[in-house]
Amino acid sequence: MKICIFGAGAIGGYLAVRLANTGQDVSVVARGPHLAAMQADGLRLRIDGGEEVAQVRASADSADLGQQDHVIITLKAHSVPGIAAHLAPLIGPETTIVTGMNGVPYWYFHGLERGGGMNPALHRIEAVDPGGSVSAHLPVEKALGCVVYPACEVVEPGVIRHVSGDRFTLGEPDGSKSGRATRLSDAMRAAGFKAPVRSRIRDEIWIKLWGNLAFNPISALTGATLEQICADPGTRGLARAMMVEGQAVAEALGVKFSIDVDKRIEGAAAVGAHKTSMLQDLELGRPMEIDALVRAVCELGQLTGQATPTIDHVLALVAQRGRVAGCYSG
Fold this sequence. Notes:
41% of the residues lie in helices and 16% in strands. It has 330 residues and is an alpha/beta fold. The longest helix is centred in the middle third of the chain and has 22 residues, at 201-222.
């Protein structure tokens, strides 16, 4: 099976090494020193006290790699509008586009047009598909949902360190158990990953988004870790209020939550002194993932008639913080 990882950073590199070393035809699109290191010495994964090395085809130009069976996008969501057109050489009639990004996916309403109390007119989310710039190049019918749970980091060019986790939950937007989802799941399980195929992928998307919606912007605004946010009554209460509003939006869209809000907060607290990805991006001067995690939920609130005043206020603050720091253009 031909699999291309578009954006082979930490998570993408982890996938690429494991899939390549179980015989899949893996290629990666990357850039800069990371690309140069992969081309010279292969891609290295430090895991379980050892190191695995994979030789993968690596290029900055997707035109070098040809059409694929699966294209797995592991960039952050805010990067996708700018690169969507560059995926064209990878996409053929039978290609599946796997969205391994956090937040609300651009295909969210695909497969829901006739169910879940949805209005057929609600078909595109501006926050993650501005002007249709993503869906124009990445057809929604080719999309396969993916919720990413592992934590990894790029410790030096060409070298990935696995921190924790091995689960990538897959799911079709229409809830079916398709052949393409099953084939990818089988390949990923053979590579040592947990890769269940779920009929309600949006439920899992929201469980992860639920925490990111609140803890990421609060962390970016305060500089606090998850442990500190959850231990302080003020910030814990703010996070809870945001999550309650987010839950109302999700349930209006037909989502079912398997845990309650307080258990979800306790789960975040148990992670300990961890800086969220949004705070890390702010500190490093990188673009902040505000739109897919926060703005999209406000937009969905407007579409479903659910008020999100707390989320709206925090969005205004974190967007301003990002603009001042040069990490968010809106």
